[in-house]
Amino acid sequence: MAKNAAASFNKKAFDELLLRKMYLVPSFEIHNGPAGFFDYGPPGCALKANVLAKWRQHFVIEENMLEMECSNLTPSNVLETSGHVERFTDFMVRDEKTRECFRADVLLEGAIDALIAANPKMPKEEQEAHRIVQRQADSFDVDQLHEMLQKYNVRSPSLVKEKGAEPSELTKPFPFNLMFKTTIGPEGTSVGFLRPEAAQGLFCNFRRLLDYNQSRMPFAAATIATSFRNEISPRGGLLRVREFCVAEIEHFVHPDEKKNHIRFRNVASMELCLFTAEAQLSTGETMKTTVGDAVASGIIDNQTIGYFMARTQSFLTSVGVDPARMRFRQHMRTEMAHYATDCWDMEILLSSGWTETVGHSDRACYDLSLHAKKTGTSMQASQRLAAPTVIDKTVAEPNKKILGPLFKKTQKDVIAAVEALEGDDLVAFRADLDANGSAVLPNTEYTLNSNCVSFKTEKKTVTEVKYTPTVVEPSFGMGRVLTAVFEHSFSQRAADEARCVMHFKPSIAPIKVGIFRLINNADFDPVVEDIRAALAFKGLVVKVDSTSGTVGRRYARADEIGIPYGITVDFDTLQDQSVTIRDRDSMDQIRVPIAKVPEILENLVSEGRSTGVRPTDPTRNLFAEYFATYPKLTQSADEAPEAASAEA
User: Fold this and answer.
1) pLDDT of 269-302, one tens digit each?
2) Which of 164, 362, 390, 422 has its CA 20 to 30 A from that of 177?
3) What is the pTM of this model?
4) CA 289/CA 270 separation, integer angstroms
5) In the CATH hierarchy, which fold is given to the domain comprising 386-467?
6) Residue numbers of the chain with a pLDDT score lower than 70
7) Would you tell me which CATH number, out of the four given (3.50.50.60, 1.10.10.60, 3.40.50.800, 3.20.20.70), belongs to the domain 511-647?
8) Could you tell me where the DSSP H helices lie in 437-577?
């Protein structure tokens, strides 16, 4: 099903529709603006807002998360602490002649695709060997990547368009930092960056979030944000851009408790398509299994990351992404950071191939520990014990007689830092003193000799233990989610390929209802306005189309912007106070009393939620249920209603 859908996709018609109907347009188009920036037009802007509202309902509200909005501009010291200044890079190569730059792993992936396409009789085993290299392209180090570029004889694509031009050589790959650098303040001495992702604001606010949550653990914080990356080779519409929307979740949990999730039983039976790290390096085949079985067998490391993977699949299905074109790809060890325990990307099959859309990472306590060490701010939570417990506790005692003359004005700060030592910091500091005779006091710049501090063990009754939480992070690239929604919603009428349709889910459609007069007759105006006002009162976005042309032509225009339902007011309406409701997807029509229209359309647009019953079957066809209840209109495919006749 997925392969057939991708093969029949008319990319040219799709791209033309997005631009013509102003879903998405290049930024600063009349000035020939730089690549990697896009503006959302009216339907695109409304669709994005509806998808984000759905995300907020699905995660923030239903999971009781704490939502924040953090600054776009981030001081350099924050991103130095997180490692972004040093390591937030892609490998780049440069054309030796034109000096044009390209992302190295993307060129390698393209070369492998071209090699396989040029050799259709290549044995399957040989193809798979090339695919294994391709799947590792973005995890190679600089030397491995250079070796593969040489092996596949990758040359610059820069002069390929010029007749008779020989492709030129490329430089050896080198790292390029993707962050946009700027200065803060008029002096120009304080360096900052436009944030490349949204997580650091949540990490830096962990202490306050924990206090706001009355010290209860676990909890999750969420944010919808704009991020910025100076991409080497922007391409694919919203897939790789320099300014983009992300929706991120940081789930904070005790390291020993992530194995279990309180709501895991709600998703345990959900079936996922998994592409394991082992399969990527061997068979290249995916497997289908329930998330419960995947966690039980150790394929997915723990219930918490498995829970969020299932919730992600559920969300994407709810906004119209085809489940048959979804898979979770596990990161290979060479892709994961040293502190990560498990990472899975939700990949969606688009016309350009499988595309990473949502990342799910178990980041352990790495981020919180980095910020705590740099700032001296506690990033620990507390867990109350079932009963008071007596423990042997090692404490550090400052030698004030030595520290006073040695540090003078700062002696109080040094003494307080010594007395505050505990846990891993105390153990590491003592080990340094024993080994070297001196050590840097943790979270400070002060170096102490061994005679400045003594250690003793004392009995202490404790009622709680402190720990640094583990973080499980689902991170959504919302531009990529929207691209999937656009592509998976697009089709062309079987009887007329010129008629394009966007089959948006009613709950995310930019416009919910179109109202059409059979002809432009002043007698219809009061009825149209009454219906429009009644639907607007229900919170439904309505478009009244009073343009010329047949109703069928106006239906076609409505289909292109994804309006799921249309109401037609005709001469019979003036006699019997009833109207026609048309379903976009089936093109079926029913005759309904005007008094019933607001209730019916509210239920259709909310996908059943307006009745107060939570929908459990995503395949349920509500319009078909109404179609079985109300008089139908029989007509050939999308004929104007004047040719239709009502039947009971």
Assistant:
1) 999 999 999 999 888 999 999 999 999 999 999 9
2) 362
3) 0.88
4) 8
5) 3.30.720
6) 1-7, 159-165, 610-619, 634-648
7) 3.40.50.800
8) 478-489, 525-537, 551-560, 571-576
